[in-house]
Specification:
The two termini are about 40 Å apart. The protein is globular, with a radius of gyration of 26 Å. The relative contact order is 0.10. The protein contains 21 helices and 25 strands. The longest helix has 17 residues. It has a 6-stranded mixed beta sheet, with helices on one face. The chain has a 5-stranded parallel beta sheet with strand order 4-3-2-1-10. It has a 4-stranded antiparallel beta sheet with strand order 20-19-24-25. Helices cover about 30% and strands about 20% of the residues. The protein is α/β, with parallel strands linked by helices and about 725 residues long. Bound molecules: beta-D-glucopyranose.
Length: about 725
């Protein structure tokens, strides 16, 4: 508390010394623009930015990495500007910097909060060693639409799970003490609603009602704020007609007032400027006015504040106290990071050498990768593979791909640095043969371009079929290219791209002993595959250690324990599809057509939220509800490992508030426990339901708990479990 006070006092004294121009400078963030090891830039945008840095008109940089680069820019600002206020350096450390953990959606499939926190910690250790002190993560956008490419970056469709993960990741990045050189400020993004882009098309309109906004979208942000997240990023989307960047209800009334957020809000890339094409601001000056008034504290690459905010203040359009408030927030975070004590604290060259690719980082991401794998099907216990007993074929271009497992947010990592499936298998056996099959993805895909997909050339299928014929078991690695999910990567089809299904079907004609290893950044529609292939492993994009993690699971050295954080649809037409939907007035099948359904597709998904198998089996029994203490209703069940191997189970608790003043979803996750159960033993699991779990937000954004009957389920996924009811007085 004493330290808090002194930071506030220091901030106040500093602000008193600052000119309006310098204050606005703190609110300006630029992208890296110049190779700092070369001469100072002459001409163009680069020179302008350079001069702005020297004149104290820049508060932060993004995409500048490396101790040498960071030190050089920091020096420029600290030594040459009038007040020497250090820069804060941000970067998209989404699931690691150089050593990559699984994509966040995959991590969410682990349902393991300790592991997720540790993964963020590992990322922060590495990122902080290259001069960075701020990550633009975690993305806590809930999304129910697998067409949207950025589902890979979040925790999936569920608000409760997303809330737990938001906390874990903020804690992991920020550690216990932000002033340590191995901790970095986190950023909850994109505030708010971005995951509800219409039709899953990136940057698209978001139009949602208050029930969804308050109960489904906002809670993970609130959880991040409660976990003391230092920054929040707004987004590209409009929310009910107002760009979130210019939305003072969200940024001022909710975030800063109601939740008491004391950190600062960064705009998304050029999102202040984008209020012009949205039809909300008439020009850049107007955009600067609207952004500043609405509580967007820092401008990322719109050049709106640096060009127009001073003018707006002088003309009385923006009150200077709003500028002061923004600057106070920004300076406070810089103080908390310890940048005023030592602006170069993140620039330790030795630590940089030591931490990059450190073996501890690889051990950590390998562990996370194994935990993220979901076993979707395993008929006749085809898995795990028996070591040295079978003739194994490996088929598919992705098996040999060292980039795709890294996903699309891999800016800091080295090309081809992921362990491929082939390499992972080699650690177990040299005794397998590989056929690449047809070329699926054209060369040249990168962060900026669309991925070209082969839809016609079948060359390579015959060779794969020949290999399959002479093999006992076929491991087929199919899925999406690493750059097919992520920002700007929406899809209207969710099947295996290109000729991959044809390849699979051709192989299946000659050999049905297939293990399908899926590598993808979003739920896919894999109906034929789910029906015909006996074993399916969902491996997402598992990061640097992908192949090793997959091999360990294939050979049974790790028993899969992941559960889907997002529903797998049967067809794109079902999307958005999510387990915690509302009932309709006509939920049940009728003899005629007049009930809520499709004529050409089931209502049910292919794989539900929370679904995932193990090499062992679990049985649920002894379900009990004790509602004698209404402040803490106890729900318990016994889970027995009835199979032959030890395993972990994610025990999930769902409630349904049967009648309420605002209709509640048919089911809502309100608790889970990941437990390890040795073969042949049982474990009793108990959950406590308090007002925190039983209430909801009404249209006035008040949290209410209403009396009435609830049903409750404890189970292995969102559709299967033991159920009962209780009454809340
Ligand atoms: C993304 C953000 C990201 C920013 C900086 C934007 O395009 O939407 O999530 O942090 O770029 O790279």
């Amino acid at each position: 508390m004493a330290q808090e006070k002194s930071i506030d006092q220091k901030v106040d004294s500093l602000i008193k010394l600052m000119t309006l121009e310098e204050k606005v400078g703190q609110m300006n963030q630029y992208n890296g623009f110049w190779d700092v090891t070369g001469p100072a830039p002459h001409g163009g945008n680069a020179e302008v930015k350079y001069q702005h840095l020297k004149n104290g008109l820049v508060g932060s940089m993004l995409n500048v990495v490396g101790t040498e680069e960071v030190r050089k820019l920091q020096q420029l600002v600290v030594e040459e500007t009038r007040l020497g206020i250090p820069l804060i350096f941000g970067y998209d450390v989404i699931h690691g910097y150089k050593t990559l953990a699984p994509i966040p959606l995959a991590e969410a499939a682990s349902w393991d909060m300790e592991a997720i926190e540790k993964s963020a910690r590992t990322a922060a250790e590495e990122a902080s060693a290259v001069g960075l002190n701020w990550t633009f993560a975690p993305m806590v956008d809930i999304s129910r639409d697998a067409r949207w490419g950025r589902v890979m970056e979040g925790a999936g469709e569920d608000t409760y799970l997303g809330t737990c993960i938001a906390k874990a990741r903020v804690k992991g990045f920020q550690g216990g003490d932000l002033s340590q050189p191995n901790t970095i400020a986190a950023c909850a993004k994109h505030f708010a609603g971005y995951g509800f882009a219409e039709a899953g098309k990136d940057y698209n309109t978001v139009d949602v009602g208050t029930a969804t906004l308050y109960n489904s979208i906002l809670p993970p942000f609130k959880a991040a704020v409660d976990a003391d997240v230092k920054t929040v990023m707004n987004g590209f989307n409009t929310l009910n007609g107002i760009p979130v960047t210019g939305n003072s209800f969200l940024q001022r009334d909710v975030l800063k007032e109601k939740w008491g957020f004391e950190g600062f809000v960064i705009s998304d890339w050029a999102s202040i400027m984008e209020m012009i094409p949205h039809g909300f601001a008439k020009d850049l000056k107007h955009a600067a006015e609207l952004g500043a008034k609405a509580g967007s504290d820092m401008d990322m690459e719109s050049y709106a504040y640096v060009k127009h905010l001073v003018e707006n203040v002088k003309e009385g359009k923006v009150d200077e106290t709003l500028v002061d408030d923004a600057v106070r927030r920004i300076l406070k975070v810089k103080f908390e990071l310890g940048l005023f004590d030592d602006p170069y604290k993140y620039c330790n060259e030795e630590r940089e050498k030591e931490r990059l690719h450190h073996k501890d980082n690889h051990a950590s991401v390998l562990d996370m990768a194994m935990k993220s794998i979901v076993l979707l099907k395993n008929e006749h216990n085809l898995l795990p593979l028996k070591k040295d007993q079978q003739k194994i074929a490996v088929i598919g271009e992705l098996a040999d791909d060292k980039n795709s497992p890294l996903g699309s947010w891999r800016l800091g990592s080295d090309d081809n640095s992921g362990v491929s499936v082939i390499e992972g298998l080699k650690a177990y056996t040299e005794d397998f043969k590989y056929a690449k099959g047809p070329k699926i993805f054209h060369e040249g895909a990168n962060f900026l371009n669309e991925v070209g997909v082969n839809e016609t050339d079948r060359t390579g299928i015959d060779e794969a079929v020949e290999l399959a014929k002479e093999s006992d078991i076929v491991l087929m690695v199919l899925g999406e290219h690493g750059f097919q999910s992520g920002e700007g990567r929406s899809r209207t089809k969710l099947d295996l791209p290109g000729v991959q299904l044809e390849l699979l079907q051709a192989v299946h004609e000659v050999n049905q002993n297939i293990v399908l290893i899926l590598m993808n950044g979003r739920p896919l529609t894999i109906n034929w595959e789910a029906e015909n292939v006996p074993a399916i492993l969902e491996t997402w994009q598992l990061g640097s250690q992908a192949g090793n993690a997959i091999a360990k699971v294939l050979f049974g050295d790790y028993n899969p324990s992941g559960k889907l954080p997002m529903t797998f649809p049967r067809s794109v037409g079902q999307v958005p599809i999510y387990y915690n939907h509302f009932s309709t007035g006509r939920p049940n099948p009728e003899a005629n057509v007049f009930w809520s359904h499709y004529s050409d597709e089931k209502n049910e998904p292919l794989f539900p939220f929370g679904y995932g198998l193990s090499y062992t089996t679990f049985e649920y029994s002894n379900f009990q509800i004790d509602d004698s203490d209404q402040n803490s209703i106890k729900v318990s069940a016994t889970i027995t490992n009835t199979g032959d191997s030890d395993g972990e189970e994610v025990v999930q608790l769902y409630i349904h508030d049967k009648t309420a003043s605002i209709a509640r979803p048919v089911k809502e996750l309100k608790g889970f426990q990941k437990i390890s159960i040795p073969s042949g033993t049982s474990h009793n699991v108990e959950f406590n339901l308090t007002d925190k779990e039983l209430g909801f937000y009404n249209h006035q954004y008040q949290y209410v708990v209403e009396p009435g009957e609830f049903s409750v389920m404890v189970g292995t996924n969102s559709q299967e479990g033991l159920t009962g009811t209780f009454t809340k007085d």
